[in-house]
Write a structure and sequence with these properties.
By secondary structure, the chain is an alpha/beta fold. Helix content is 38%, strand content 14%. It has a single domain, classed as Rossmann fold (3-Layer(aba) Sandwich), CATH 3.40.50. Helix 2 packs across helix 5. It is globular and about 45 Å long.
């Protein structure tokens, strides 16, 4: 998992445990604070540079989202998602490279693999008795900062309508 989903490339100083630790140190506001907390797993090849560009352009993104860059969206696993939700995260958004005819994934089919894994994620949400809308996946190109901001803010609004995660405070 500290490699591309096709296991062609591995990365020194990058492991699933590192990402797990990043998730664990994110502060989750108490239920009484009435502040949501969202987690974004973001591919470092296209989505993260688009996020960087959004910052340069001073586009407004919800301050309640915490971003964790991953080598490839295909390496995001249901354990991370389950851990984040059970710790009280209100929602998780995955943002990776584009799929389709103009496929741009640097790790061959990482975003496509992540999309396929969404069935496992839906099963995990059912096990936790949470709504499917709490975890969503989007794809962007490196030059689509506007779309990235639109996806993140739209996701936050949608999950805000559902309400806070009932696991907050446990």
């Amino acid at each position: 998992m500290g490699a591309c989903p096709e296991r062609i490339i591995s990365f020194k100083n990058y492991s699933p445990n590192m990402v797990s630790q990043m998730i664990k140190v994110i502060e989750i506001p108490d239920e009484e604070d009435e502040k949501p907390r969202y987690l974004a797993f973001i591919c470092e090849n296209d989505a993260f540079p688009a996020l960087d560009m959004a910052g340069f352009r001073r586009l407004r993104i919800s301050p309640f989202v915490r971003f964790i860059p991953v080598r490839c969206l295909g390496s995001v696993n249901t354990v991370w998602i389950g851990d984040a939700l059970s710790s009280g995260m209100d929602g998780i958004i995955e943002i990776g490279c584009k799929m389709g005819d103009d496929y741009q994934c640097h790790m061959i089919q990482g975003s496509q693999l992540a999309d396929t894994r969404m069935d496992n994620v839906k099963d995990k949400l059912q096990q936790l008795a949470l709504e499917e809308e709490r975890v969503q996946i989007f794809t962007v190109a490196i030059d689509e900062a506007d779309k990235l901001v639109e996806y993140v803010n739209g996701f936050v609004e949608e999950v805000n309508e559902i309400g806070m995660n009932p696991f907050k405070g446990f």
